[in-house]
Amino acid sequence: MDRNSIIGLGLIFVILISFAYLNQPSQAEIDAAKRRQDSLTLVRIQNDSIAATMAMAEKKVAEAAIPTQADSAAKQNAFGTFASYTEGKEQMTTIENEELKVDVTNKGGRIFKVELKKYKRADGSPLVLVDGVDNEFSYGFATRDAKAISTKDLYFTPALAADGKSVTMKVNLADGQYIEHKVSFNASTNLVDFKINLVGMESLIAPNYNILDLSWKQNILQQEKTHDAEEKTSTIYYRYPNEDAEFLAETKDVKEDLKTPIQWISFKQQYFNTALISAKTFDKALVETKLDQGKKFVKFASANIELPYNHSKNEEFSMQFYFGPNHYKTLKALNIGLEKVVPMGWGIFGWVNKLLTVNVFYFLGQYLGNFGIVILLLTVIVKTLLFPLVYRSYLSSAKMRVLKPEIDEIKEKYGNDMAKLQQENMKIYRKAGVNPMGGCLPMLLQMPILIAMFQFFPSAFELRQKAFLWSSDLSSYDSILNFGFNIPFYGDHVSLFTLLMTVSTLVYTMYNNQMTGVTGQMKVISYLMPVMFLGFFNNYASGLTYYYFLSNLFTIGQQLLIRQFVDDKALHKQIQENKKKPVTKSRLQSKLEDMAKKRGFDPDKLSK
Asked: Domain-by-domain residue ranges, the chain?
């Protein structure tokens, strides 16, 4: 920097210092500003005090429930005949059976809270499926004098039955007119009857009002250890009469208008559900699910349902609630298709679970309390059933291994002529009586069972909160080490069963590659896939990874056993004998060759 630049910067610095000094406030100005600030602070304090006093006064007025004349007039104007029934104090009436504890509130005459007595949340607290603070169940209608009435604003009079199993909530109007809600248990099950009776209301409800607008809303409460896993499996299911149940997408906000009659609607969670079942059908419904961005709740679910109103003297609407577990056998026994909320998989995967897995779990679960042992026995059963396929797969691989030297010779001889190479290979396979796909087809036939288990275990209610070895809950991941931070594509913990599954898969892959002689890119991919699955399965149900680990061990054991009875030298000798025999063509092969000849090709000449 030269001298002129230094002088220039120095002058600028002096000017700035001088400007700041000349423009600084005087002591009088500072004192005046302080007085203004103190005054503003005092005003804010006074305003806050006035607001707090007003809020306290309003609270006291509300608690005293002493309506002013203006309030009474406003309520009369808003609710008409029902104005006096909008005042009262909320009270709970409790009914219980072996499964449920149900609190019914007089405000709205609805079910306020439901506790499942036999189950606990992941943290050990009572499992509350429905909490009145976070749900709504009410219906509305218009009156002849143009008042909009909703039962959520009305205070009902409760009457508890002598046996404590049912409660009646009633709004008694003049001249024998009343609204009645009856809540009662259906035997000792998870079903609760809910009946609406409207008597003499035809003279009050507007003549052009042919429906009751039923609003059912619920903030779904978290019950399980992992919020994300529960969020991804929570949604709304519904069923049209005589059809399979359908559901809304689970991973995004969805709203759907159901324009035809519906038999039931279910707010389904990972292992529990709350279903509203009509004795006949609901006319229409608008259903909606929303994700809770704050993660306070699992999800928000709502259903706006139309109930038909015929303006008769006595109108009755009979419904049932199901509050309980997503247990396949329990739901299927209801005979309304509600078991569809348990994801079993589609097509053949669903049949495997329904016919095999569910029945094995149900049968063994009645006699064995340890579901780790149940999974072990299930693995034994499945592997025993699949053993013939494993044997054929091994035998086919062994034949291919014995023929490999001859195949390599052909490859060396005709490597540049792919058509000739394929023809010569097929010629050897046909003469030796070897099917090159023989090792793949048995494995493909095993895939439906593996995929079916993948569907079943994460949704198997039987595994919920069942401990085995180091896993405290077979329906969730087993953590032997928590990092305290999240690793992308892996998670914040180490699942030991997932590690064991991965190691056993790598061992099986190495053993299989040695037998089949896989090389090159396919060999690399075969080792890479188990490592990728390590991250994928780390957050999955430990019951599933435990099953896959056992399945790998049994497969390796079966192949080692088979190897003791399959002699490569004897197999090679048998193949050479087969080559001397006349080639027998299968029906399919003969048909394909006939078709080729009609098009001008002679497969026999091409193979010579």
From this structure: 112-150+187-198+207-342, 350-580
**CA–CA distance, 467 with 607 (Å, rounded to integer):** 62
What DSSP element (H or E) covers 32? helix 27-64
Most confident range, picked from 252-266, 486-500, 564-578: 252-266
Spatial CB neighbours of 70, under 8 Å, sequence gap ≥ 6 = none
Could you tell me if 326 and 216 are in contact, meaning their C-beta atoms sit under 8 angstroms apart? Answer: no
Q: What is the pLDDT of residues 191-243, one digit of tens each?
A: 999 999 999 988 888 888 888 999 999 999 999 988 888 999 999 999 999 88
What's the predicted TM-score (pTM) here?
0.74
- The residue ranges of DSSP E strands in 200-355, in sequence order, are 211-220, 235-239, 246-247, 254-258, 262-268, 272-282, 284-291, 299-308, 314-325
Q: Are strands 148-150 and 157-160 parallel, antiparallel or unpaired?
A: unpaired
Q: Which two tokens stand for residue 430?
A: 């046909």
Measured on CA atoms in the order 586, 591, 596, 598, is the torsion positive or negative? positive
Q: For residue 405, what pLDDT band results from cuts at 50, 70 and 90?
A: confident
Angle (nearest 5°) at CA 473 between 497 and 235 = 105
> Where does residue 335 fall: left (phi above 0), alpha (psi -120 to 50 degrees), or beta otherwise?
left
Residue 51 tokens read as 């607001």
- Nearest residue to 458 (alpha-carbon basis) of 226, 240, 287: 226
CA-nearest of 163, 170, 184 to 100 is 184
d(Cα 300, Cα 253) in Å, to the nearest integer? 9
The sign of the torsion formed by the CA atoms of 378, 380, 386, 390 equals positive
Please give the Cα distance from 513 to 390 (Å, whole number). Answer: 16
Inter-residue contact 100 to 116 (CB < 8 Å): yes
H helical segments located in 266-417: 328-332, 347-352, 358-367, 371-414
Helix (H/G/I), strand (E/B), else coil: 332: helix
How long a stretch of residues is the chain?
Answer: 608
Give Cα 535 to chain centroid, integer Å.
20
Which DSSP category does 447 fall into? H
Helix, strand or coil for residue 11? helix
